[in-house]
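Quick start: what a row looks like.
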Amino acid sequence: MNFEIISDITNIEKIAVGNTIREIDRLRRTYGKGRWRKMRGIAKIKFIDGSTRIAELHWYEAHGIGKKEIKRKKYLD
């Protein structure tokens, strides 16, 4: 991750849950069993060079494990 999230993530919604996630086997092997969800939301991010943008982020999360593999998908500003 070459950015830092500097605001709260808003407009959070589920994209997929459980076996509808394509990479569910890899997630379970890497991070453990859990009720995995693929999520998306909007946040302000800061890059290494100091610039900031508003972006749509995607990530995986499971109860007791937390957010994993946060990815920037597109800029919204």
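That is the whole record. The chain has a mean pLDDT of 96. The beta strands are 3-5, 10-17, 37-47, 52-62, 66-75.
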